[in-house]
Write a structure and sequence with these properties.
It is a single chain. By secondary structure, this protein is α+β, with helices and mostly antiparallel strands. The protein has nine helices and 13 strands. The strands form two sheets. Strands 7-8-9-10-11-6-12 form a seven-stranded mixed beta sheet, sandwiched between helices. Strand 8 and strand 9 form a beta hairpin. Helix 1 packs across helix 5. The longest helix has 15 residues. It is globular, with a radius of gyration of 21 Å.
């Protein structure tokens, strides 16, 4: 089974190393947080079987299914609080990966041939130049960055399952990218490029080199993460231009202690096709 990063034992170990409370069940992983009168149990990229997972009493559950399962969630008293997002999944088992690239993507990749790329594992220190640059970029562009402690924990516990690619032009560092491998899947983690790196198409060169590297190791799929066609069409084109397939996740759903049982009862009493 190709597990998503958020449901893999490597991720569980990193969360625990970072002091997070994790509940493991036969069905998957739930991360627990305290919120005054309630505990919050977060299930990210969960399988349908996670609906059967038991949670401590008075637990407000947030569930982001890996696939759509709206009817089953409503029958369990869940309320949708966020619409589904799309992710890009790149099957890298094809014998000729380059043939699957879109024409414009392939031509842009050709312009990056002059870059010198190095492939190593992520060091456990939290002050690596790429981490610092990505943190500054997140503040400037106002997006939520991956916490440093998570990357550091992965590099400490699972260094051989990390891939750090650095790009240089005429000896100067212009870009970097990190992937995390979990079983037969590798997930894009973070990246950064200087203006020169972007001009030289460093992101394409690094992503392409990562695909070649992981394909040679028997990895079946690259998870390129989420994208928004309307808010960031350029990023969507970049990810899908590899030949990656777009797939919608199941949205974000909430189950409030006490209310969930009432909503589930009401949903079962409604005529077919109606929503509570």
């Amino acid at each position: 089974m190709l597990r998503p990063l958020q449901q893999h034992p490597h991720f569980t170990a990193c969360l625990r190393a970072g002091g997070r409370c994790v509940v493991e069940t036969p069905q998957g992983l739930m991360v627990m947080r305290d919120l005054r009168a309630f505990q919050v149990g977060l299930i990210s990229r969960g399988a349908p079987e996670m609906l059967r997972a038991e949670a401590p009493a008075r637990t407000l559950r947030l569930f982001t299914p890996d696939h759509a399962m709206d009817d089953r969630l409503r029958l369990r008293g869940f309320v949708q609080i966020h619409a589904p997002v799309e992710i890009a999944e790149w099957d890298i088992t094809a014998p000729d990966l380059r043939k699957g690239l879109r024409k414009t993507w392939r031509h842009a990749l050709d312009r990056a041939e002059g870059l010198k790329l190095s492939l190593t594992h992520m060091p456990p220190t939290g002050d690596h130049w790429l981490l610092m640059a990505e943190q500054r970029q997140a503040k400037t562009k106002r997006y939520k960055s991956m916490p440093l402690w998570l990357t550091r924990a992965w590099a400490t516990l699972h260094a051989k399952d990390s891939l750090l690619i650095e790009a240089r032009s005429k000896g100067a560092m212009v870009a970097g990218m990190v992937f995390l491998r979990h079983g037969s899947v590798a997930t894009y983690h973070i990246s950064f490029a200087t203006p020169l790196g972007r001009q030289l198409e460093a992101h394409r060169a690094m992503l392409w080199r990562a695909a070649e590297h992981f394909a040679g190791q028997g990895v079946e799929r690259l998870d390129l993460g989420t994208f928004d066609r309307k808010a960031a069409p350029g990023l969507a084109q970049f990810k899908l231009g590899t030949g990656a397939q777009a797939r919608a996740l199941g949205g974000t759903w909430m189950s409030v202690p006490g209310l969930a049982r009432m909503r589930a009862y009401r949903t079962r009493q409604l005529p077919s096709g109606k929503k509570a």
